[in-house]
Specification:
Length: 312
């Protein structure tokens, strides 16, 4: 039996995974499922197309709804940085069958920021990659970072993982890098028949490198000085991006800074970045906010704001 209700959908697409969430007219979440990656810049466009179409159709089937019942759908995609990118994703979703007038596609920072704040402000994302974007009530007005690894994305999960892996490769080569117990954990994670582990580590994908970051955080929490220094530098990079963008935009009055992403789920890291920004911008009236739910779940608020005509 088909669900008779109108449905709002929010999609948070990243380089590692993509979350689809949906709610009904009462604002109650009725769907939350994770699928493959959605960033064609760190993967293959064909694979991303297949992932998104499959995810969309799976959602329709699971909810037992027709496309006409979708009141509005917002998609925040990591790496969606230009109109060309938007057009690529519009074409993908057009193949899936979603009506264009019910679909809004943007960078993942906008999805999160619009859901959480109605003020001007900044969204800083630190997950697999990193990016800092500034918004006013109408549009994104500026950005820094987020241009892709390895040349950008400072302070991200990739950056943290690459930092420890570079040190490990130097140690394996017999250079002046001291041994760190974390290297044994990394070796176990990437066991290979290769005679030299260096080949294995240097061939890791962006997402595989980023997957090492939680291990670095864990060792930092346990007091490992090298890992603590890497985390400190990551926070310093992100503070610099946020402060420089605030200075560039010159917000007048109170504004919001939203901190989101896997790295900011670490309480100490979140507090360190927040304190660093306040120290460098002592005269700014900043409200710091962190999502209480997943980006896709919070994105449902944006979907209902964006497409309010059918809401109760």
């Amino acid at each position: 039996m088909l669900n008779p209700d109108n449905i709002w959908i929010a999609v948070d697409g990243g380089g590692t995974k993509t979350a689809f969430c949906a709610c009904n007219s009462a604002g109650i979440k009725i769907y939350d499922k994770t699928f493959g990656n959605a960033n064609y810049k760190v993967s293959d466009l064909g694979a991303v197309t297949e992932n998104l179409i499959k995810a969309y159709n799976t959602m329709l089937s699971d909810l037992q709804i027709l496309p006409e019942q979708i009141a509005g759908m917002v998609m925040g995609i990591a790496g969606c940085d230009s109109q060309q990118d938007v057009d690529i994703y519009l074409n993908i979703m057009r193949q899936a069958g979603i009506p264009k007038d019910k679909l809004y596609i943007c960078n993942d920072t906008e999805l999160i920021f619009r859901a959480i704040s109605d003020e001007d402000g900044i969204c800083a994302v630190a997950g697999t990659g990193s990016i800092v974007c500034g918004f006013n009530e109408n549009a994104m007005v500026a950005r820094m970072g987020g241009w892709g690894s390895p040349l950008s994305d400072e302070g991200s999960g990739y950056w943290v993982g690459a930092k420890i892996l570079r040190g490990m490769i130097r140690w394996l080569d017999g250079m002046d890098e001291p041994y760190n117990p974390i290297y044994d954990e990394i070796r176990k994670r990437f066991i290979s028949v290769e005679p030299e582990l260096q080949w294995v580590l240097s061939a890791l994908s962006i997402t595989e490198v980023a997957s090492v970051a939680p291990l670095v955080f864990a060792y930092a929490t346990e007091g490992d000085d090298n890992c603590r220094e890497i985390i400190r530098q990551a926070a310093e990079h992100l503070v610099g991006l946020i402060v420089n963008l605030c200075t560039k935009i010159k917000y007048a009055g109170r504004f919001t800074v939203v901190l989101v992403g896997g790295l900011f789920s670490n309480e100490e890291f979140y507090k360190t970045v927040k304190a660093g920004v306040r120290q460098l911008l002592p005269d700014s009236d900043i409200a710091f906010r962190r999502p209480e739910n997943s980006p896709a779940e919070d994105g449902l608020l944006f979907a209902r704001k964006r497409y309010p005509e059918n809401t109760n």
